[in-house]
Amino acid sequence: MTDYAGATAHITRTELAALGPSWVVQPKLDGCYARVLTDAAGRVSHVWGRSGKLLPHSLAGELIHLPNSLLVGELDLWTEAATRTVATRGWQCVHLFDAVRIGGRHVGHLPYRTRRDLLWRGQSQVECYGPSLPWYRDRNGDAHDRTTGRYVKERDRGWRLAPIVPQRSARLADSAWQDWVHAVGGEGVVAVNLDAPLGARKSKLKCKPVDTLDAVVLSVASKTVCLEWRGHRFTCTRVKRAPCSAGDIVEVCHAGWYESSITPRFATILRVRADLH
Known about the structure:
Strand order of the largest sheet: 1-12-11-2-10
CATH topology of the largest domain: D-amino Acid Aminotransferase, Chain A, domain 1
CATH class of the largest domain: Alpha Beta
Structural class: alpha+beta
Radius of gyration: 22 Å
Number of strands: 17
Order of helices and strands: EHEEEEHEEHEEEHEEEEEEE
CATH architecture of the largest domain: 2-Layer Sandwich
């Protein structure tokens, strides 16, 4: 994929705080990378994943942006956080953070600050002139169908299903981390270079919460290592820089825990703890 718009490298919290004025930070959402195509009317026609395969979604036919646009976002799909969010909210959204084409015009060569401005302008046009919600609230706050007046279940439509990801100046990275990661258990933040064109090397850097634990190696396969921590077993990818054998104690770096089990997320072996052998 030559127009990939996601983060391609990592950055630490310390490096994040040292970024200059041409950088901003955005929340790293926990979902599925998605490329959203709108048709000649501005309605969603296709949604692809990073691999190029069509993704299951409920956005088909929704008027979210300008016609003939190729937008990039994070779709509420496949992850535990996304599943929980959809179950709580009641519907699926795609959180937009970039664009390849807007209104039939290729924008990948433009700096990110311009692409984001066009993203907002395009959505604003749909918001101003697009259809309203098919329901309204009465004095008690209950939703009614605009045509029949019957009680209905509230559900957002159109551009409301494609919110644009918020961002803050990099100098506010610490407060952003507290609000988007620490307070709500978010996946991390993404630092974005406002002056970079789409796909520029190291123009988007992800920073995830990191913790470590010490686990016992149970077995080693050609590509994976089976570990045990406090009676719970999990596997991680075998890395050459930290060769280990069954019985070793290793330090494992991870980004939090999966909700469905006591399993560390994105576990990676850092080193063998010879001092604890």
